[in-house]
Amino acid sequence: MRDFLARALRHRSFVAGGLLTLLMLGMAALSLLWTPYNPTAINIRRRLGPPSADNWLGTDAFGRDVFSMLLVGAQNSIIVGVLAVGIGASIGTALGLWASARRGWVEEGVMRAADFTFAFPAVLSAIMFAAVLGPQSLNSIIAISIFNIPIFARVARGSANAIWARDFILAARACGKGALRITIEHVLPNILAVLVVQATIQFALAILAEAALSYLGLGTQPPTPSWGRMLNEAQALIFRAPLLVVFPGIAIMLSVLGLNLLGDGLRDLTDPRLSRQR
């Protein structure tokens, strides 16, 4: 563990990604305890105010404090990302492990179902759900989760197939262990690092997808602040108050960049071949 931490602190991508991710988590945690103003409070007299000592990042077209909205928007992005990736990873990993353990028609069926699911991107799925159920945050979570399931199924299946070919799996079979026990005790622990790296990358994509869906009006609904909807509301004022576009755009960019750098760092640190090169 100490050796891993020492290598992690020397890895620039991991450190940079970790700091940016901690910044996003810190914003969300802070919003649970404190915000300068009520992020949904409308004050028309202060509409389109520039950054000042009272409103650090200015106010929007309704007089709402932009900094407070960014803080709460971080909380919303993390909730949607964690739920969507958690659900997708759980179901997808289970399907991938099942396909790898059973092989044959089970593996073929799971992989063909994954191919079929890839035909429905998260945005397209969200539009379909919004048409049936109405636009809401739940639609974003369901759509992004469905998109993540085949990704994790493929990653889990490919990584597990490599483990099933190892000699220690043959030894476990010789000891009388069944497929389920081998999967839980030997296969899953050996592919966990790969799944964590993939989850980090998908988390970044989930934040981007949530922002896109909210921008289109299919995700988080008013009055709950959302980075994507902040961009949507600011686009008509881009020449009059360009900072309203800049601040949520930077928040989305830094969050996605941080998680991608963190994922790249984790990949390098958990891959023995790359670790030996550093």
Q: Provide the domain count.
A: 1
CATH homologous superfamily identity: MetI-like
The proportion of residues in beta strands is under 5%
Order of helices and strands: HHHHHHHHHHH
Instruction: Look at the structure and give the CATH class.
Output: Mainly Alpha
What is the radius of gyration?
Answer: 22 Å
What is the molecular shape? Answer: elongated
Strands, count: 0
Largest sheet: none
- State the distance separating the first and last CA atoms: 17 Å
Helix content: over 70%
Overall pLDDT score:
90
Detail the poorly predicted runs. none
Architecture overview:
The chain has 278 residues and is mainly α. The protein has a single domain (2-277), classed as MetI-like fold (Orthogonal Bundle). The chain has 11 helices and no strands. It has helices at 2-10, 12-33, 66-102, 104-117, 122-133, 137-164, 167-174, 179-215, 227-234, 243-270, 272-277. The protein is elongated, with a radius of gyration of 22 Å.
Relevant terms:
mainly alpha; MetI-like fold; 11 helices; elongated
Would you spell out the secondary-structure blueprint of this structure?
Elements (H helix, E strand, L loop, with lengths): L1 H9 L1 H22 L32 H37 L1 H14 L4 H12 L3 H28 L2 H8 L4 H37 L11 H8 L8 H28 L1 H6 L1
Helix pairs in contact: 2-3, 2-10, 3-4, 3-6, 3-8, 4-6, 5-6, 6-8, 8-9, 8-10, 9-10
Could you write a compact summary of the structure shown?
The chain has helices at 2-10, 12-33, 66-102, 104-117, 122-133, 137-164, 167-174, 179-215, 227-234, 243-270, 272-277. It is mostly helical and 278 residues long. The two termini are 17 Å apart.
